[in-house]
Amino acid sequence: MRAIITVTGKDRPGIIAGVCVLLSESNINILDISQTVMQDFFTMTMLIDLSACDKAFAEVSDSLDAKGKEMGLIIRVQREDIFDRMHRI
Amino acid sequence: MHNQKEILATIDMIDNQHLDVRTITMGISLLDCCSDSVEVTAEKIYNKITVLAKDLVKTGEDIEKEFGIPIVNKRISVTPISLVAAACKETDYTPIAKALDKAAHTCGVNFIGGFSALVHKGMTKADINLINSIPSALAETERVCASVSVASTKAGINMDAVKLMGKIIKKTADKTADRGGFGCAKLVVFANAVEDNPFMAGAFHGVGEAECVINVGVSGPGVVHHALKKCKGQPFDVVAETIKKTAFKITRMGQLVATEASQRLGVPSGIVDLSLAPTPEKGDSVARILEEMGLEVCGTHGTTAALALLNDAVKKGGVMASNHVGGLSGAFIPVSEDEGMIEAALKNALTLDKLEAMTCVCSVGLDMIAVPGDTSAETLSAIIADEAAIGVVNTKTTAVRIIPAVGKKVGEIIEFGGLLGSAPVMPVHEFSSADFIARGGRIPAPMHSLKN
């Protein structure tokens, strides 16, 4: 299963590192990353592959959410299908 | 990979524009629950529902989490109870309503629809029993919704049923007067009722349906409103095109949820209802979309045309995005559930007569409207008859969900809270329709119903 992670909030060092460590611990592979910073506002979208992940989706989602709170950011993970359906025919 | 703009646009719709799936409704046939005793029937019904729908809420929540899209309601609709209870020797079907209510609590759904009778051509003994049980059934349960179909394009208008429903609405309001007539918020009187509607209070599982199906209702007035803000001053062609594109996106997401839910529950997917269903929250209003098109206040001249365009464009945009379209599909105009409608009614811009005109072009009918508590049963029946006539002649679904606000006068407000919102009491015509309603009988079906 593939999913999209989005991270938004005030830029600071270690955002990508923080998210990547968490993903690697869950055996989640990162397929693509895109990042922009506009006037201190950080936005990152990341395509991930959960097929080798040993945790339930809800657990991954909760730990990313907790990580976001810890870093003062909003981190969410959503299955890729929702973006496919909405923006592709 | 998707471009970042698209991803963030979707997230913005969910976070800031109230995009959600309004309901996943499981339709369950209860035809095999018949028996000659109300108690036994009630027990069979409880058992069947709690087995089939035991994972409904959990599945909805899982999908919500994985896709990051709110699924506001999980609900159940069942076979019209007048059919299921027809063999019972008792005449009071309230115990069945209580079993439905208990099943709803056990499964964790917030509404269960189907305490219903289809009497558009005539009433059986069981239909009359059911209708007479409605006031106590709605007063003694929390989550049960009732509906009665009193007219259809094929059959005409059953004026005996229309007459009876005026009295039943009054009784239901009296029995739930301590809760602002809450019972009436769960009671719909239909013309051209549909068998696969996922939205409450009018949902029931028709006899032409399968054993168990999943129907999904999408929503998103806020998303449409937001999209229209970008076409200020543009001609209506642009407006229609923008609504179509937005409706397409919303519906694709609804179809995804419908497919996913049906796979996970092992239940066939029925229909997606392409609706714009408002909530009382700011930014989730159909009235505000109409105002965005250039009307100072919803209800002023031009409102019906604006609503006609909206209703049509929502369907055109949504139809290609879903496998099977059904239910009511269109823009809902429930007064108490729409922050913009409430404000328009308080300004006297939106009147009952204008709402009636709007129901010619919206998805359903007069919805969640509070009228003075001293409105007569005959006047309520006459309002139902007018609405049914619109549905019958225009071959569309219309409905009346009206709340006589016991002890309240025009201008006062009744509060329901939650999704049902609050309703300003609106004036009705004071001249009598009593002799008209007293006639009874059936208004014949229109000429264009003869299509064979």
Features:
heterodimer; A: 89 residues; alpha+beta; four-stranded antiparallel β-sheet; 3 helices; 39% strand; B: 452 residues; alpha/beta; Anaerobic Ribonucleotide-triphosphate Reductase Large Chain; two-stranded antiparallel sheet; globular
Kindly describe this structure.
The complex is a heterodimer of chains A (89) and B (452). By secondary structure, chain A is an alpha+beta fold. Helices cover 37% and strands 39% of the residues of chain A. In chain A, α1 (15-25) packs antiparallel against α2 (57-71). Chain A is globular and about 35 Å long. The mean pLDDT of chain A is 92. Chain B has 452 residues and is α/β, with parallel strands linked by helices. Chain B is built from 15 helices and 14 strands. In chain B, strands 1, 2, 3, 4, 5, 6, 7, 8, 9, 10, 11 and 14 form a 12-stranded mixed beta sheet that branches. In chain B, α6 (125-140) links the parallel β3 and β4 (144-152). The mean pLDDT of chain B is 95. At the A-B interface, β2, β3, α2, β4 and α3 of A face α1, α3 and α9 of B.
- Silhouette of chain B: globular
Total domain units of chain B: 2
Structural class of chain A: alpha+beta
Measured between the Cα atoms of the first and last residue of chain B, the distance is 53 Å
Which architecture of chain A would the CATH scheme give at its second level? 2-Layer Sandwich
Order of helices and strands of chain A: EHEEHEH
CATH topology of chain A: Alpha-Beta Plaits
CATH class of chain A: Alpha Beta
| Gross morphology of chain A | globular
Query: Number of helical runs of chain A?
Result: 3
